[in-house]
Write a structure and sequence with these properties.
By secondary structure, the protein is mainly alpha-helical. It has one domain. It is 79% helix and 0% strand. The protein has 16 helices and no strands. Helix 6 packs across helix 7 and helix 7 runs antiparallel to helix 9. The protein is globular and about 60 Å long. The relative contact order is 0.16.
Length: 342
């Protein structure tokens, strides 16, 4: 109980800190003016395009699941993503990352450990792809340096977060590959760690660990690995495109390529386990808009509020519709995610 309260206190403290810096020196009259100045056509497109990344993620997921079950229904993969993101947006701690695979495992009768293993691969590739795209952007700097004069601080931030992201993605990839290619040693290590625990608990964790490692077997298929990599690029190309539409909504002309660093910063902010991505998403979005594109801070606040609200509301509506159809509640899903952590 104390551990839970400490974790929640830390999460809400981080949320407050990021929101403080996000709203710092905000002129609400200016923000409201920008909010009402948005182009309706592009606002509608932002609403319509929300399910896009869920569709791409569902298509991509199939290449991880095919080794366990070849005929996984597309709707269940889409629903798993939608429900997972809804739980993440409603509750703190990114519980949706666990609910997503467990939901699909139940719907498709797939082992829980296997499904959880696919999510580790997914998150590793998401981080790796965006680090690659950011690296491409930074390496190409001589080609566009005239467009980014006097932005030394912005680039120093990008280098910093790029290195952090690269280090984290590399660590995850090394650990993931080690788990799979050194299965016996990994299981022996897990068994050693579990010695102090009761036999029933250690046996259950060991079984889940074996299933988890099986979820990584797609690394042995070069064809699936290539397709999954290409679809990972497609996922992030779509997300970058989505944020590009946001700029059109505010009549800001910017190259699609220049949206890469902004999207990377937003990804970093969204990864912070605050409820609804509130705080982290907002701060890093504002940081990217003001430091990279010299956008007025009040306009940056307006743009961030709009894009976050649209994504949150539409994703939750889709998630709620699926949950209602399934006859389950959000709190049942929350409990599912929490129980898996025990």
């Amino acid at each position: 109980m104390k551990k839970t309260w400490f974790r929640l206190s830390l999460i809400f403290f981080l949320t407050f800190v990021f929101l403080y810096f996000f709203f710092q020196s905000v002129d609400w009259k200016e923000v409201f003016s920008y909010l009402t100045d948005i182009k309706l056509v592009f606002l509608i497109l932002l609403v319509v395009f929300v399910p896009g990344h869920l569709i791409f993620r569902a298509i991509r997921w199939r290449y991880l699941l095919i080794h366990e079950k070849k005929d996984v229904k597309f709707f269940n993969m889409f629903a798993g993503n939608a429900v997972g993101f809804t739980v993440t947006l409603i509750f703190p701690g990114r519980l949706g990352e666990i609910v997503k695979p467990l939901y699909l495992a139940k719907k498709e009768n797939i082992s829980k450990g296997f499904a959880l293993g696919t999510i580790v691969v997914e998150r590793t590739f998401d981080m790796a792809i965006m680090c690659f795209l950011l690296g491409l952007f930074l390496i190409s700097k001589p080609l566009y340096s005239s467009y980014f004069q006097d932005k030394k601080e912005a680039f120093s931030n990008l280098y910093l977060w790029g290195l952090v992201g690269f280090a984290f993605a590399s660590l995850l990839l090394i650990m993931t590959l080690s788990f799979y290619f050194f299965k016996k040693k990994t299981l022996s290590f897990v068994t050693f760690i579990l010695k102090p625990f009761p036999h029933k608990i250690s046996q259950k964790v060991l079984e889940l660990s074996e299933e988890f490692i099986l979820g990584l077997k797609f690394f042995h298929s070069v064809g699936n690995l290539l397709m999954y990599t290409l679809l990972s690029f497609a996922v992030w190309m779509w997300i970058i495109f989505y944020y590009w539409v946001l700029f059109f909504a505010y009549d800001i002309s910017i190259s699609y390529f220049f949206l890469i660093p902004y999207t990377f910063l937003v990804m970093v902010g969204a990864s912070i386990p605050t409820p609804g991505m509130v705080g982290g998403f907002h701060y890093f979005s504002k940081l990217g808009l003001t430091s990279l594109f010299n956008i007025d801070s009040n306009q940056a606040v307006s743009m961030t509020i709009i894009v976050h609200a649209v994504q949150l509301i539409m994703t939750c509506l889709i998630g709620y519709a699926i949950i209602w159809k399934e006859g389950i509640s959000l709190f049942q899903l929350k409990k599912l995610g929490e129980n898996s952590k025990k």
